[in-house]
Specification:
single chain; 10 helices; 194 residues; mainly alpha
Amino acid sequence: MTTEATALQSGILETYYADNARKLHRTVDKILSKFGGLSDKDRDDFYSLANEVFVHALKRYDYLRSFDGFLYSCLSNKIKTDITKRNRWKRRADKMSVSLDAVSGGGDGNSLLEFTASDFDTFEEVIRRQGNGQYHDKVQRYLARLSNQQVNILNLLIDGYRPNEIQRLLEITPGQYADDMQTMRSYENVKILF
């Protein structure tokens, strides 16, 4: 490497890294402005990535064109690739997610929520508080929000019936049962109780 090239590299380094890498960060910000939904942590990740790209771009720079344009294209390509990779991982995770109220594939009509270990049960809590004379009005308002079928399901659950027994007694499908349970457990309905 010639002394002229070394001097040019030093000048480029000084330009981009003066004032806490302000010019490099502004270049990254310009590219990121085309994308939405990025947090401050994401932005910091891209600043770190920009440092790596900068080093590689400086090594590959041929001094025939503007370094600013060359670096911008290198950064833009790397950031787009990284965002695409992040979005693929998000979509993969979304495909694997399952609602806890979804009916399990076991054929018994139970939802995953019924197999999830927890010592809290909304319905048992309501019964306990109702038995203590607390929240009578709240329980009445909660029940008023439910359909007749959902009230029947709730009563059968309180009486200790299992989901497949309730479905058989009320002559409803596992899907209808799951939909009713989801509505009964929805935050909009349950928040009245507490």
